[in-house]
Amino acid sequence: MKSIIDAINLEKELHPQATSQDISKLIYQACFGNGHMITSVKDCLDQLKQEVVQDNSKPSIQNIGNGYVRVSCSAMKKKEELYNLLFVHSSKQDPDTKLYQSLLMKYDL
Fold first, then answer.
1. pLDDT of residue 23
2. DSSP secondary-structure letter at 15?
3. Are 103 and 27 in contact (CB under 8 A)?
4. Contact 62/70 with Cβ under 8 angstroms?
5. Would you tell me how many other CB atoms lie within 10 Å of the CB of residue 44?
6. What span, in angstroms and rounded, lies between the C-alpha atoms of 35 and 32?
7. Nearest-CA neighbor of 31 among 11, 1, 72, 70?
8. What is the pLDDT of residue 36?
9. Which of 50, 31, 28, 47 is nearest to 88 (CA)?
């Protein structure tokens, strides 16, 4: 849990304008991963390629705890297939509902 709390503190530091909804989303991602976003490997890759083209942000990788990281789409350019496989593989982890509930309570979200 400490790494998620560190990730929340970092998120607040990097984005002082972050809302409760933004923090809730980070907690959700750290506890449940991305399984809800996977319909098929091909559809996932198609969506990723669209997002990579649209993203002009600075490439970054942010540890969000619980074994997960956020990777900016701009960091994935020319490596979409690899990141898609990692994305799909990580969706197979079991969600941590107890941790999710405790963090929501801790941050009064």
1. 93
2. -
3. yes
4. yes
5. 18
6. 7
7. 1
8. 67
9. 47
**Residues 34, 103, 12: CA angle, nearest 5 degrees:** 80
Which burial class, exposed, middle or buried, applies to 105 when counting CB atoms under 10 A from its CB (0-12, 13-18, 19+)? exposed
Residue whose token pair is 């405790």: 102
How far is Cα 60 from Cα 66, in angstroms, rounded to an integer?
Answer: 18
Cα end-to-end span (Å), the chain: 17
Residue 20, helix vs strand vs coil: helix
**Strand (E) or helix (H) holding 54:** helix 41-54
Alpha carbon 55 to its chain centroid, in Å, reads 16
30 burial class (0-12, 13-18, 19+ CB within 10 angstroms)?
buried
Asked if 65 and 30 count as a contact pair (C-beta separation under 8 A), the reply is: yes
C-alpha closest to that of 100 among 46, 38, 42, 25: 25
Which of 102, 100, 107, 106 shows the shortest CA–CA distance to 27? Answer: 100
Q: Which residues of the chain, if any, have pLDDT below 70?
A: 1, 35-37, 92
